[in-house]
Amino acid sequence: MADRPGSAAKIAVITRTKDRPMFLGRCIQTVLEQTETDWLHVIVNDGGDPWPIDTAVGQYADRYRGRLRVIHNETSVGMEAASNIGIRASESRYIVILDDDDSWDPLFLEVMTAHLDSNTWPHVKGCFCHTRIIYEEIRDDSIVETGRGDFNNRISHLDFFQLLPANRFTPVCFVFERAALDEVGLFDESLPVCGDWEFNLRFLSHYDIDTVQQELAFWHQRPTVKGVNGNSINAGADMHALYRARIINRWVRDGLKQKATGMADLFAAAIAIEQGVIMQRKIDRRRGLRRLTHKLKSWLKGR
Fold first, then answer.
1. Where residue 161 falls among pLDDT bands split at 50, 70, 90?
2. Rg, Å, the chain Cα set
């Protein structure tokens, strides 16, 4: 373990990893390539073999220059608990969770922290940026990109009605003030999945979250890969659906106990709006297809 000398860092980068050395190398590179250099990288090995991690970080000791802290959990405690361990083991003004298989544009930390530094609205305590999904496969022990897709680039300003139906930003693109945790709390360690969405909902319940309309983060997905090298959102889709339902039920149940059904009403309205938008898009596509078919028929008749 290498400790950062002197005062606290501007931003703590928390990386959760377990037995995925081929991804961790890319993650380390994306941190070291940041134009903003005032950071502390905390790598939490959640019960995996320590040797590959120590070997990987050892190659970059000169470039880290004391800005690294490695924590080896003897046994796995789960993603959310690993995040909390990393947060508690660091000091900084800002925090971001960078999973071992995700990456950033070199300007990510500079742009995101500058946005929060210049913010004048007192209720803004975090921001997320537009994010590109990178699809990839593992071939012969190598990571091969197979395509790219949009994730949240349509969002210009975030509100509850966007976040309630589904998570609109993953940890890779979300930077927030450490001080906000006094009100928001840490990540819910009882959740094996969906912990970031639940955290985001709690965060928005207390503070506003700005949108940085620049594509600076990359969420890497491997839809066909199972096991340790897969993504929980793909490999554990059924579990995501289960815990999404449990989170909604818990929020609504708490509201009912307090005789305040506001959250229940919000969930219902947000999901209805989401379904209405999806249905309208389907209708628009059908109408467009009918118009195209009509034009094609007219063209054929005129030949």
1. confident
2. 22
